[in-house]
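**User:** Here is a favour to ask of a fellow structure person. Please take any protein you like and set down a full record of it. No explanation is needed for now; the record alone will do.

**Assistant:**
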Amino acid sequence: MRKEVFRMERVTYRENGILMLEDFSLNIWEGEIMGLIPVNSYGLNSFIDLLAGNPPLEDGYIYYREKITNSWKSAKRGNNRITIIRDRTSLVGGMTVADNIFVLRPGFRKSIIQPAVLESQLEPFLKEIGIRLSARAYVDKLTSFERIVVELLKGIVAGHKLILLSEMSTLISGNELRKLYGIIRHYAAQGYSFIYIGSHFEDILQLCDRAALMSNGHIEKVLQPREMETENLRSLFREYDKMVRGYLEHKKEKKNTGKYICEVYSEIEEMAEPLQFRVRQGECLVIQSLDNHIYRAMLQLLLDEDTDYYWRMLLDGKHAKIQRNRKIAVIQEQCTKTMIFPEMNYVDNLCFNLDKRIRNVWITSRIRRSVRQEYGTILGKEVFAAPVEELTEKQKYQMIYTRILLQKPEVVFCIQPFKGADLSHRMYIWELLEQLLEKGIAVVILAVNLADTLSLADRLICIDKDKPQKEYDQREFTSIPILAPWLHLYRELPRDGREN
Protein backbone atom coordinates (compact mmCIF):
# COMPACT_ATOMS: atom_id res chain seq x y z
CA MET A 1 0.00 0.00 0.00
CA ARG A 2 1.32 3.43 -0.96
CA LYS A 3 2.37 5.54 2.01
CA GLU A 4 1.50 9.18 2.52
CA VAL A 5 4.55 11.27 3.37
CA PHE A 6 2.94 14.65 4.03
CA ARG A 7 -0.53 16.06 4.52
CA MET A 8 -1.97 19.47 5.34
CA GLU A 9 -5.63 19.13 6.21
CA ARG A 10 -7.88 22.24 6.24
CA VAL A 11 -5.08 24.39 7.65
CA THR A 12 -5.80 28.02 8.54
CA TYR A 13 -2.80 30.04 9.65
CA ARG A 14 -2.24 33.64 10.69
CA GLU A 15 0.93 35.68 11.11
CA ASN A 16 0.66 38.68 13.45
CA GLY A 17 -3.10 38.48 13.12
CA ILE A 18 -3.03 38.49 9.30
CA LEU A 19 -4.64 35.53 7.54
CA MET A 20 -1.97 33.87 5.36
CA LEU A 21 -3.40 30.40 4.66
CA GLU A 22 -7.07 29.47 4.69
CA ASP A 23 -8.58 25.99 4.47
CA PHE A 24 -5.30 24.81 2.92
CA SER A 25 -5.23 21.12 2.01
CA LEU A 26 -2.49 19.19 0.23
CA ASN A 27 -1.11 15.66 0.40
CA ILE A 28 2.05 14.05 -1.02
CA TRP A 29 2.74 10.36 -1.50
CA GLU A 30 5.98 8.47 -1.01
CA GLY A 31 8.15 8.76 -4.12
CA GLU A 32 5.95 11.49 -5.62
CA ILE A 33 7.09 14.72 -7.25
CA MET A 34 4.38 17.28 -6.55
CA GLY A 35 4.38 20.51 -8.53
CA LEU A 36 3.15 23.71 -6.91
CA ILE A 37 2.22 26.65 -9.16
CA PRO A 38 1.67 29.93 -7.26
CA VAL A 39 -0.69 32.25 -9.15
CA ASN A 40 0.40 34.88 -6.64
CA SER A 41 2.93 34.74 -3.85
CA TYR A 42 0.45 35.42 -1.06
CA GLY A 43 0.91 32.80 1.66
CA LEU A 44 3.72 30.97 -0.16
CA ASN A 45 6.40 31.80 2.41
CA SER A 46 3.98 30.85 5.19
CA PHE A 47 3.44 27.46 3.56
CA ILE A 48 7.21 26.91 3.44
CA ASP A 49 7.55 28.04 7.07
CA LEU A 50 4.96 25.44 8.10
CA LEU A 51 6.97 22.76 6.33
CA ALA A 52 10.16 23.69 8.13
CA GLY A 53 8.75 24.39 11.59
CA ASN A 54 5.59 24.17 13.64
CA PRO A 55 4.16 27.60 14.47
CA PRO A 56 0.68 27.61 16.06
CA LEU A 57 -2.26 26.98 13.72
CA GLU A 58 -5.67 28.58 13.94
CA ASP A 59 -7.26 25.48 12.50
CA GLY A 60 -6.39 22.20 10.81
CA TYR A 61 -3.79 19.44 11.02
CA ILE A 62 -0.35 18.74 9.54
CA TYR A 63 1.04 15.20 9.24
CA TYR A 64 4.57 14.16 8.30
CA ARG A 65 5.42 10.50 7.69
CA GLU A 66 1.95 9.55 8.95
CA LYS A 67 2.44 11.24 12.33
CA ILE A 68 0.77 14.46 13.40
CA THR A 69 3.32 17.26 13.81
CA ASN A 70 1.08 20.31 14.14
CA SER A 71 -2.56 21.09 14.79
CA TRP A 72 -4.83 23.77 16.18
CA LYS A 73 -4.63 21.91 19.49
CA SER A 74 -0.87 21.55 19.88
CA ALA A 75 2.39 21.53 17.92
CA LYS A 76 5.57 19.47 18.01
CA ARG A 77 8.57 21.39 19.23
CA GLY A 78 11.52 22.03 16.96
CA ASN A 79 11.94 21.82 13.21
CA ASN A 80 10.70 19.09 10.92
CA ARG A 81 13.12 16.80 9.12
CA ILE A 82 12.33 18.36 5.75
CA THR A 83 14.84 19.94 3.37
CA ILE A 84 14.07 23.38 1.93
CA ILE A 85 16.14 24.52 -1.08
CA ARG A 86 15.64 28.11 -2.25
CA ASP A 87 17.64 30.99 -3.70
CA ARG A 88 19.23 31.61 -0.28
CA THR A 89 21.75 28.96 0.69
CA SER A 90 21.38 26.96 3.88
CA LEU A 91 25.01 25.82 3.78
CA VAL A 92 27.53 27.15 6.29
CA GLY A 93 30.17 29.29 4.64
CA GLY A 94 33.84 28.75 5.34
CA MET A 95 33.33 24.99 5.52
CA THR A 96 33.76 22.24 2.95
CA VAL A 97 31.15 20.22 1.10
CA ALA A 98 31.83 17.16 3.28
CA ASP A 99 31.65 19.22 6.49
CA ASN A 100 28.24 20.59 5.55
CA ILE A 101 26.83 17.20 4.54
CA PHE A 102 28.23 15.00 7.31
CA VAL A 103 29.72 16.97 10.21
CA LEU A 104 26.84 19.42 10.65
CA ARG A 105 24.09 16.83 10.50
CA PRO A 106 22.25 15.93 13.72
CA GLY A 107 23.70 12.84 15.34
CA PHE A 108 27.32 13.34 14.23
CA ARG A 109 29.31 12.33 17.30
CA LYS A 110 32.96 12.10 16.25
CA SER A 111 35.32 14.51 17.97
CA ILE A 112 38.13 13.99 15.45
CA ILE A 113 37.23 14.80 11.85
CA GLN A 114 39.05 12.83 9.17
CA PRO A 115 38.59 14.51 5.75
CA ALA A 116 39.69 11.41 3.85
CA VAL A 117 37.02 9.31 5.56
CA LEU A 118 34.32 11.90 4.83
CA GLU A 119 35.48 12.05 1.22
CA SER A 120 35.17 8.29 0.84
CA GLN A 121 31.68 8.41 2.38
CA LEU A 122 30.53 11.11 -0.05
CA GLU A 123 31.98 9.53 -3.18
CA PRO A 124 29.26 6.84 -3.63
CA PHE A 125 26.52 9.48 -3.42
CA LEU A 126 28.16 11.63 -6.09
CA LYS A 127 28.90 8.64 -8.31
CA GLU A 128 25.31 7.45 -8.01
CA ILE A 129 23.95 10.68 -9.51
CA GLY A 130 26.81 11.30 -11.94
CA ILE A 131 28.16 14.47 -10.33
CA ARG A 132 31.85 15.34 -10.14
CA LEU A 133 32.55 17.50 -7.11
CA SER A 134 35.37 17.63 -4.58
CA ALA A 135 34.32 16.83 -1.03
CA ARG A 136 37.00 19.26 0.15
CA ALA A 137 35.72 22.19 -1.92
CA TYR A 138 34.59 25.17 0.13
CA VAL A 139 30.90 25.83 -0.33
CA ASP A 140 31.51 29.56 -0.86
CA LYS A 141 33.16 28.68 -4.20
CA LEU A 142 30.38 26.45 -5.52
CA THR A 143 28.25 27.35 -8.52
CA SER A 144 24.50 27.67 -7.99
CA PHE A 145 23.94 24.20 -9.43
CA GLU A 146 26.62 22.62 -7.23
CA ARG A 147 25.19 24.36 -4.18
CA ILE A 148 21.71 22.99 -4.91
CA VAL A 149 23.09 19.46 -5.36
CA VAL A 150 25.00 19.69 -2.07
CA GLU A 151 21.89 20.89 -0.20
CA LEU A 152 19.88 18.06 -1.74
CA LEU A 153 22.51 15.46 -0.77
CA LYS A 154 22.65 16.92 2.72
CA GLY A 155 18.93 16.20 3.05
CA ILE A 156 19.28 12.69 1.62
CA VAL A 157 22.16 11.81 3.98
CA ALA A 158 20.19 13.21 6.93
CA GLY A 159 17.26 10.93 6.05
CA HIS A 160 14.82 13.68 5.11
CA LYS A 161 12.01 12.02 3.17
CA LEU A 162 10.53 15.26 1.83
CA ILE A 163 12.53 17.88 -0.08
CA LEU A 164 11.15 21.20 -1.33
CA LEU A 165 12.80 23.06 -4.20
CA SER A 166 11.62 26.56 -5.08
CA GLU A 167 12.03 28.32 -8.46
CA MET A 168 15.09 26.38 -9.57
CA SER A 169 14.69 27.58 -13.17
CA THR A 170 15.61 31.13 -12.10
CA LEU A 171 18.86 29.97 -10.50
CA ILE A 172 20.43 27.54 -12.95
CA SER A 173 20.70 27.09 -16.71
CA GLY A 174 18.55 24.82 -18.85
CA ASN A 175 21.30 22.20 -19.11
CA GLU A 176 21.78 22.19 -15.34
CA LEU A 177 18.03 22.06 -14.83
CA ARG A 178 17.82 18.86 -16.88
CA LYS A 179 20.57 17.32 -14.73
CA LEU A 180 18.70 18.35 -11.59
CA TYR A 181 15.49 16.78 -12.91
CA GLY A 182 17.40 13.53 -13.42
CA ILE A 183 18.69 13.62 -9.83
CA ILE A 184 15.20 14.31 -8.47
CA ARG A 185 13.71 11.42 -10.46
CA HIS A 186 16.52 9.15 -9.27
CA TYR A 187 15.74 9.78 -5.61
CA ALA A 188 11.98 9.75 -6.17
CA ALA A 189 12.40 6.21 -7.48
CA GLN A 190 14.06 5.38 -4.15
CA GLY A 191 11.03 6.61 -2.20
CA TYR A 192 11.97 10.22 -1.50
CA SER A 193 9.23 12.79 -2.09
CA PHE A 194 9.55 16.27 -3.56
CA ILE A 195 7.62 19.52 -3.74
CA TYR A 196 8.72 21.52 -6.76
CA ILE A 197 7.57 25.16 -6.81
CA GLY A 198 7.62 26.60 -10.32
CA SER A 199 5.92 29.45 -12.13
CA HIS A 200 5.91 27.84 -15.59
CA PHE A 201 3.83 24.87 -16.59
CA GLU A 202 6.59 23.70 -18.97
CA ASP A 203 8.82 23.00 -15.95
CA ILE A 204 6.00 21.31 -14.06
CA LEU A 205 5.06 19.08 -17.01
CA GLN A 206 8.62 17.87 -17.53
CA LEU A 207 9.10 16.77 -13.94
CA CYS A 208 6.02 16.40 -11.79
CA ASP A 209 3.50 13.60 -11.22
CA ARG A 210 0.75 15.95 -10.03
CA ALA A 211 0.41 19.72 -9.74
CA ALA A 212 -1.38 22.00 -7.28
CA LEU A 213 -2.51 25.52 -8.13
CA MET A 214 -2.11 27.94 -5.21
CA SER A 215 -3.77 31.36 -5.02
CA ASN A 216 -4.26 33.77 -2.10
CA GLY A 217 -3.14 31.26 0.49
CA HIS A 218 -5.41 28.47 -0.74
CA ILE A 219 -5.06 25.40 -2.96
CA GLU A 220 -7.53 26.06 -5.76
CA LYS A 221 -7.07 22.83 -7.70
CA VAL A 222 -4.90 19.72 -7.80
CA LEU A 223 -4.27 18.23 -11.23
CA GLN A 224 -4.12 14.44 -11.15
CA PRO A 225 -1.71 12.43 -13.37
CA ARG A 226 -4.33 11.96 -16.10
CA GLU A 227 -4.85 15.75 -16.16
CA MET A 228 -1.15 16.62 -16.48
CA GLU A 229 -1.41 17.81 -20.06
CA THR A 230 -0.27 21.01 -21.73
CA GLU A 231 -3.77 22.30 -22.48
CA ASN A 232 -4.99 21.83 -18.91
CA LEU A 233 -2.07 23.78 -17.47
CA ARG A 234 -2.07 26.40 -20.21
CA SER A 235 -5.70 27.20 -19.48
CA LEU A 236 -4.65 28.38 -16.02
CA PHE A 237 -2.62 31.17 -17.65
CA ARG A 238 -5.19 32.16 -20.27
CA GLU A 239 -5.12 35.91 -19.52
CA TYR A 240 -1.32 36.09 -19.72
CA ASP A 241 -1.36 33.93 -22.85
CA LYS A 242 -3.89 36.25 -24.50
CA MET A 243 -1.82 39.33 -23.66
CA VAL A 244 1.40 37.89 -25.10
CA ARG A 245 -0.38 36.51 -28.15
CA GLY A 246 -1.82 39.95 -28.94
CA TYR A 247 1.60 41.54 -28.58
CA LEU A 248 3.21 39.04 -30.97
CA GLU A 249 0.39 39.42 -33.51
CA HIS A 250 0.84 43.19 -33.45
CA LYS A 251 4.61 42.95 -33.61
CA LYS A 252 4.79 40.67 -36.63
CA GLU A 253 2.87 43.26 -38.65
CA LYS A 254 5.61 45.86 -38.37
CA LYS A 255 9.27 45.45 -39.20
CA ASN A 256 11.84 46.94 -36.85
CA THR A 257 13.84 49.30 -39.05
CA GLY A 258 15.39 51.25 -36.19
CA LYS A 259 19.08 51.93 -36.38
CA TYR A 260 21.62 49.95 -34.39
CA ILE A 261 22.43 52.11 -31.39
CA CYS A 262 24.50 49.86 -29.15
CA GLU A 263 27.33 47.45 -29.90
CA VAL A 264 29.18 45.34 -27.33
CA TYR A 265 32.40 43.36 -27.59
CA SER A 266 33.78 41.43 -24.64
CA GLU A 267 36.45 38.83 -24.05
CA ILE A 268 35.39 36.42 -21.30
CA GLU A 269 37.92 33.76 -20.41
CA GLU A 270 35.40 30.90 -20.24
CA MET A 271 34.04 31.53 -23.75
CA ALA A 272 35.47 29.95 -26.88
CA GLU A 273 35.27 33.25 -28.74
CA PRO A 274 34.55 36.90 -27.82
CA LEU A 275 30.97 37.85 -27.03
CA GLN A 276 29.68 40.25 -29.67
CA PHE A 277 26.24 41.70 -30.20
CA ARG A 278 24.46 44.83 -31.31
CA VAL A 279 20.91 45.98 -30.73
CA ARG A 280 18.46 48.29 -32.50
CA GLN A 281 16.20 51.00 -31.16
CA GLY A 282 13.08 49.41 -29.69
CA GLU A 283 14.49 45.89 -30.00
CA CYS A 284 14.50 43.26 -27.27
CA LEU A 285 17.59 41.07 -27.26
CA VAL A 286 17.81 38.18 -24.79
CA ILE A 287 21.23 36.82 -23.85
CA GLN A 288 20.96 33.44 -22.18
CA SER A 289 24.01 32.26 -20.28
CA LEU A 290 24.17 28.47 -20.06
CA ASP A 291 27.23 28.59 -17.80
CA ASN A 292 27.29 30.01 -14.29
CA HIS A 293 30.84 31.36 -14.56
CA ILE A 294 29.99 33.28 -17.73
CA TYR A 295 26.85 34.64 -16.08
CA ARG A 296 28.88 35.94 -13.14
CA ALA A 297 31.38 37.49 -15.54
CA MET A 298 28.58 39.30 -17.37
CA LEU A 299 27.17 40.58 -14.08
CA GLN A 300 30.60 41.97 -13.30
CA LEU A 301 30.69 43.69 -16.68
CA LEU A 302 27.31 45.33 -16.09
CA LEU A 303 27.67 46.27 -12.43
CA ASP A 304 31.40 46.77 -11.85
CA GLU A 305 33.45 49.26 -13.83
CA ASP A 306 36.69 47.75 -12.49
CA THR A 307 36.11 44.38 -14.14
CA ASP A 308 38.97 42.04 -14.95
CA TYR A 309 37.50 41.29 -18.39
CA TYR A 310 38.05 43.28 -21.55
CA TRP A 311 34.86 45.12 -22.41
CA ARG A 312 34.09 47.62 -25.15
CA MET A 313 30.77 49.32 -25.77
CA LEU A 314 29.84 51.64 -28.60
CA LEU A 315 26.76 53.81 -28.19
CA ASP A 316 25.75 55.76 -31.28
CA GLY A 317 29.17 54.87 -32.65
CA LYS A 318 31.07 56.34 -29.70
CA HIS A 319 32.87 54.58 -26.87
CA ALA A 320 30.73 54.49 -23.73
CA LYS A 321 30.79 53.26 -20.15
CA ILE A 322 27.73 52.02 -18.29
CA GLN A 323 28.29 53.76 -14.98
CA ARG A 324 27.10 57.37 -14.73
CA ASN A 325 25.85 57.38 -18.31
CA ARG A 326 22.40 58.88 -18.89
CA LYS A 327 21.94 56.95 -22.12
CA ILE A 328 22.40 53.58 -20.41
CA ALA A 329 20.32 52.08 -17.59
CA VAL A 330 20.63 48.82 -15.66
CA ILE A 331 17.67 47.13 -13.94
CA GLN A 332 19.11 44.74 -11.41
CA GLU A 333 17.91 41.27 -10.48
CA GLN A 334 14.99 41.37 -8.00
CA CYS A 335 14.92 45.14 -8.40
CA THR A 336 12.26 45.72 -5.72
CA LYS A 337 14.89 44.61 -3.19
CA THR A 338 18.07 45.92 -4.83
CA MET A 339 17.04 49.27 -6.35
CA ILE A 340 14.98 50.90 -3.60
CA PHE A 341 16.47 53.32 -1.10
CA PRO A 342 14.42 53.16 2.12
CA GLU A 343 16.13 56.22 3.62
CA MET A 344 14.77 58.35 0.75
CA ASN A 345 11.16 59.35 0.15
CA TYR A 346 9.14 58.27 -2.87
CA VAL A 347 9.78 61.29 -5.09
CA ASP A 348 13.53 61.19 -4.40
CA ASN A 349 13.57 57.47 -5.26
CA LEU A 350 11.68 58.28 -8.44
CA CYS A 351 14.08 61.06 -9.43
CA PHE A 352 17.22 59.15 -8.46
CA ASN A 353 18.57 58.95 -12.04
CA LEU A 354 17.43 62.42 -13.10
CA ASP A 355 20.75 64.03 -12.20
CA LYS A 356 22.11 62.29 -15.30
CA ARG A 357 19.69 64.42 -17.36
CA ILE A 358 18.98 67.56 -15.38
CA ARG A 359 21.56 69.58 -13.50
CA ASN A 360 20.78 70.82 -9.99
CA VAL A 361 17.89 68.37 -9.57
CA TRP A 362 18.90 67.88 -5.92
CA ILE A 363 19.59 71.54 -5.23
CA THR A 364 16.17 72.87 -6.17
CA SER A 365 12.90 71.20 -5.22
CA ARG A 366 11.01 72.79 -8.13
CA ILE A 367 11.88 69.99 -10.55
CA ARG A 368 10.86 67.27 -8.12
CA ARG A 369 7.57 69.05 -7.39
CA SER A 370 6.95 69.17 -11.13
CA VAL A 371 7.59 65.41 -11.41
CA ARG A 372 5.20 64.78 -8.55
CA GLN A 373 2.44 66.84 -10.18
CA GLU A 374 2.95 65.29 -13.61
CA TYR A 375 3.08 61.68 -12.46
CA GLY A 376 0.64 61.88 -9.57
CA THR A 377 -2.32 60.97 -11.78
CA ILE A 378 -0.38 58.08 -13.36
CA LEU A 379 1.23 56.55 -10.29
CA GLY A 380 -1.45 57.47 -7.77
CA LYS A 381 -1.12 60.38 -5.37
CA GLU A 382 -1.17 58.10 -2.34
CA VAL A 383 2.26 56.59 -3.13
CA PHE A 384 4.04 59.92 -2.65
CA ALA A 385 3.05 60.04 1.02
CA ALA A 386 3.89 56.43 1.84
CA PRO A 387 7.30 55.18 3.06
CA VAL A 388 8.79 53.27 0.13
CA GLU A 389 9.21 50.10 2.21
CA GLU A 390 5.45 50.01 2.76
CA LEU A 391 4.59 50.14 -0.94
CA THR A 392 3.02 47.07 -2.51
CA GLU A 393 5.25 44.97 -4.73
CA LYS A 394 3.44 46.29 -7.80
CA GLN A 395 3.97 49.91 -6.70
CA LYS A 396 7.67 49.22 -6.20
CA TYR A 397 8.01 47.82 -9.72
CA GLN A 398 6.07 50.80 -11.05
CA MET A 399 8.37 53.26 -9.27
CA ILE A 400 11.57 51.64 -10.53
CA TYR A 401 10.49 51.36 -14.16
CA THR A 402 9.10 54.91 -14.11
CA ARG A 403 12.50 56.03 -12.79
CA ILE A 404 14.04 54.46 -15.89
CA LEU A 405 11.51 56.18 -18.18
CA LEU A 406 12.32 59.53 -16.55
CA GLN A 407 15.99 58.93 -17.27
CA LYS A 408 15.18 58.40 -20.99
CA PRO A 409 18.04 56.00 -21.77
CA GLU A 410 18.73 54.62 -25.22
CA VAL A 411 19.43 51.11 -23.97
CA VAL A 412 18.38 49.26 -20.81
CA PHE A 413 20.14 46.14 -19.53
CA CYS A 414 17.76 43.98 -17.46
CA ILE A 415 19.16 41.23 -15.24
CA GLN A 416 16.65 38.38 -14.90
CA PRO A 417 13.66 40.76 -14.66
CA PHE A 418 11.10 38.03 -13.88
CA LYS A 419 13.09 36.29 -11.14
CA GLY A 420 11.15 35.79 -7.91
CA ALA A 421 7.92 37.27 -9.31
CA ASP A 422 4.58 35.47 -9.11
CA LEU A 423 2.20 35.25 -12.06
CA SER A 424 0.42 38.58 -11.50
CA HIS A 425 3.69 40.44 -11.04
CA ARG A 426 5.27 38.70 -14.04
CA MET A 427 2.41 40.01 -16.16
CA TYR A 428 2.99 43.51 -14.81
CA ILE A 429 6.77 43.37 -15.38
CA TRP A 430 6.05 42.20 -18.92
CA GLU A 431 3.83 45.27 -19.48
CA LEU A 432 6.50 47.59 -18.05
CA LEU A 433 9.17 46.15 -20.34
CA GLU A 434 6.80 46.54 -23.28
CA GLN A 435 6.44 50.23 -22.38
CA LEU A 436 10.21 50.65 -22.65
CA LEU A 437 10.21 49.02 -26.08
CA GLU A 438 7.28 51.16 -27.26
CA LYS A 439 9.32 54.25 -26.34
CA GLY A 440 12.00 53.07 -28.77
CA ILE A 441 14.36 52.03 -25.97
CA ALA A 442 16.53 49.00 -26.71
CA VAL A 443 16.18 46.30 -24.05
CA VAL A 444 18.92 43.71 -23.46
CA ILE A 445 17.86 40.97 -21.04
CA LEU A 446 20.47 38.82 -19.33
CA ALA A 447 18.95 35.48 -18.32
CA VAL A 448 20.00 32.13 -16.93
CA ASN A 449 16.76 30.49 -17.98
CA LEU A 450 14.44 31.84 -20.66
CA ALA A 451 11.28 31.98 -18.52
CA ASP A 452 9.07 34.84 -19.75
CA THR A 453 11.82 36.63 -21.65
CA LEU A 454 11.12 34.75 -24.87
CA SER A 455 7.66 36.32 -25.06
CA LEU A 456 9.26 39.75 -25.62
CA ALA A 457 12.39 38.78 -27.53
CA ASP A 458 13.19 39.77 -31.09
CA ARG A 459 16.43 37.83 -30.94
CA LEU A 460 18.08 35.32 -28.64
CA ILE A 461 21.79 34.70 -28.12
CA CYS A 462 22.81 31.56 -26.22
CA ILE A 463 26.32 31.48 -24.76
CA ASP A 464 28.02 28.50 -23.17
CA LYS A 465 31.43 27.53 -21.88
CA ASP A 466 34.01 26.68 -24.56
CA LYS A 467 31.37 26.96 -27.31
CA PRO A 468 30.68 29.61 -29.95
CA GLN A 469 27.64 31.77 -29.29
CA LYS A 470 24.45 30.69 -31.03
CA GLU A 471 22.01 33.31 -32.28
CA TYR A 472 18.32 32.86 -33.12
CA ASP A 473 16.04 35.44 -34.64
CA GLN A 474 12.33 35.30 -33.92
CA ARG A 475 11.60 33.13 -36.96
CA GLU A 476 14.01 30.50 -35.59
CA PHE A 477 12.65 30.33 -32.03
CA THR A 478 10.76 27.14 -32.83
CA SER A 479 14.09 25.40 -33.44
CA ILE A 480 15.42 26.15 -29.94
CA PRO A 481 16.38 22.70 -28.60
CA ILE A 482 14.62 23.04 -25.23
CA LEU A 483 11.05 23.16 -23.94
CA ALA A 484 10.82 26.84 -23.03
CA PRO A 485 7.84 28.99 -22.00
CA TRP A 486 5.96 30.68 -24.86
CA LEU A 487 7.46 28.58 -27.65
CA HIS A 488 3.95 27.30 -28.38
CA LEU A 489 2.90 30.79 -29.50
CA TYR A 490 5.70 31.03 -32.05
CA ARG A 491 4.71 27.63 -33.41
CA GLU A 492 1.08 28.72 -33.72
CA LEU A 493 1.73 32.12 -35.33
CA PRO A 494 2.02 32.25 -39.14
CA ARG A 495 5.59 32.68 -40.30
CA ASP A 496 4.86 35.14 -43.09
CA GLY A 497 5.95 38.64 -42.32
CA ARG A 498 7.64 37.90 -39.04
CA GLU A 499 10.82 39.88 -39.44
CA ASN A 500 13.12 41.73 -37.11
